[in-house]
Amino acid sequence: MTKKRSTSKTAKNQRIITTSKGFRIRTYEPPPPEFNPLAATPHLLLHHGFPTRPDAKTEPRVRQMWEKALSRPRTWITPVFREVQGKSHGPALRPGSGRAKVSATKGIANATSSNWSGSVAFAPAKRTFGWVAGQWTVPNPHAPGLGSYYASEWVGIDGWGSNDVLQAGTETEILDLGIFSSRQVYVWWEWFPSGEVAITNFSVSAGDIMYCLICVNSTTTATVYLTNQSTGVTTSFSITAPQGTALAGNSAEWIVERPTINGSVASLTDTKTVYFDEGIAGLSGAPFTVIDLGSGTAVTMTGNNNASLSVPTLETSQLMKVDWLKAN
């Protein structure tokens, strides 16, 4: 069901959308076909919603990745949003009940969660994350039995040791009633506690490679960039949170999650193996610091009787696989 939202025009093909929870979303004018982001001015990059060009001297590694990403052909779209009722993602939950808590300076070993599986990197004392990036292979959802099963694959900031989390990714879910079955694969974002917001005109299929970059502009504003690397479809939008919602910046994540459906944690879709790579996150301020996915804490999702449901393996500094074992 689509909730009502207000829309106002700012410039050609740019709009400000306000969700029912008070989040303001700014979309950008897609660039013309001949647009070359590698040669564009900072003003034009901003106007069309491109990520800021990193400094080649102080951020050579990130500049190289920026140029590699933007040199590929892209089809830019203006996103269309739909608020999804009854479904939310959000902070990591401890096995049993309650949210996960951890000192950002010490991290945690042998971490488990009832809804997250993947890698969580923690900011050192007096530092916060300014951006996070990564890509993953969208799994083909399978039903391990009769019923409804859900899995979300995403990149995000916060949610472990904080009450907030900003995340964007894909949803892979399946309903199997024996004589009838259906699958859904789509793109979404959420800034907890707002609930899931689907991007209805962003096409994605099982087997596609999705890329996400989230840049923090302030504790209450951020920009999300999403690309289907397999098709070239790309979009970006900026979010301003309402009063009472703010980023702590204490953690960055690359996660497979079983979302909450109508107040209860869902059964996990059989996703086989989900691969995340090119996973990196940057700290705000000086000195310029990049933290790799592989140096984060591996988190295993657990279910009934503390059985492992989804297990990550950190294979290289920027590569992780997450294996499905059980639904609940």
Number of strands: 24
Give start-end ranges of low-pLDDT stretches.
1-10, 102-107
Structure class? mainly beta
The CATH architecture comes to Sandwich
List keywords for this structure.
328 residues, mainly beta, Jelly Rolls, 21-stranded mixed β-sheet, 3-stranded antiparallel β-sheet, 24 strands, globular
Descriptive account of the structure:
By secondary structure, the chain is mainly beta. Helices cover 5% and strands 45% of the residues. It contains 2 helices and 24 strands. The chain has a 21-stranded mixed beta sheet that branches. A 3-stranded antiparallel beta sheet has the order 6-18-19, with no helix packed on it. The chain is globular and about 55 Å long.
Summarize the model shown.
This protein has 328 residues and is mainly beta. The chain has one domain (79-324): Jelly Rolls.
